[in-house]
Amino acid sequence: MYLKSIEVQGFKSFATKLHFDFHEGITAIVGPNGSGKSNVADAVRWVLGEQSAKQLRGASMQDVIFAGTENRKPVGFAYVAITFDNSDHVLQTDYSEVTVSRRVYRSGESEYMINKAHCRLKDVNELFYDTGIGKEGYSIIGQGQIEKIINGRPEDRRELFDEAAGIVKFKRRKTEALKE
Ligand code: ATP
Ligand code: MG
């Protein structure tokens, strides 16, 4: 499985629709300060269900919507879609390509989709449990995160091993089952 492409529209500094293609192997994003490199990583985090404005370097969740510049008007919604090549079926679905998208309007109304079908955030989370992908996976290593792991509480560090061992999914399901 690998990240094939990202589409953004109205997300942070990306006012108009923009498509990034990735290939197997390493891709580096380079550019001057403030040109939107970190916004690309934020887009990935966001579409995978990030609920914390702080993690996205904003004050409120609406801050992800393009706020306008001197020559361009603000827009009404933010949209991100990411596509994974799933021909090895690491993601447990029959699809060999999986696209997850999220849209949010200024009213706060928001929607998630998997392969163009509406779904809940929970479905997005379930799809990625134990794959290392996801807002809590370790596929996105932010600044200061390594330090946090090294100096973290043993319980937090245990979570990291659970994720790597692929048992998070079962633990979450157990917790849910006990609640019901
Ligand atoms: P650096 O090299 O300094 O890390 P960077 O390339 O990572 O820079 P980003 O942090 O991705 O840059 O982009 C910051 C830019 O995004 C700023 O110019 C900021 O004004 C713009 N930006 C962030 N949110 C919005 C928004 N909602 N609307 C418009 N522009 C935004
Ligand atoms: Mg940056």
Automatic annotation (TrEMBL):
From the Swiss-Prot or TrEMBL record, state where the protein is found: Cytoplasm
Q: Which domain of life is it from?
A: Bacteria
Question: Which positions in this protein are listed as binding ATP?
Answer: 32-39
Q: What is known of its domains?
A: Contains large globular domains required for ATP hydrolysis at each terminus and a third globular domain forming a flexible hinge near the middle of the molecule. These domains are separated by coiled-coil structures.
Q: What does this protein do?
A: Required for chromosome condensation and partitioning.
Quaternary structure and partners: Homodimer.
Family per similarity comment? Belongs to the SMC family.
Q: What is this protein called?
A: Chromosome partition protein Smc
Annotated source species: Acetitomaculum ruminis DSM 5522
Protein's gene: smc
Tell me the stretch of the parent sequence this chain holds: 1 to 180 of 1188
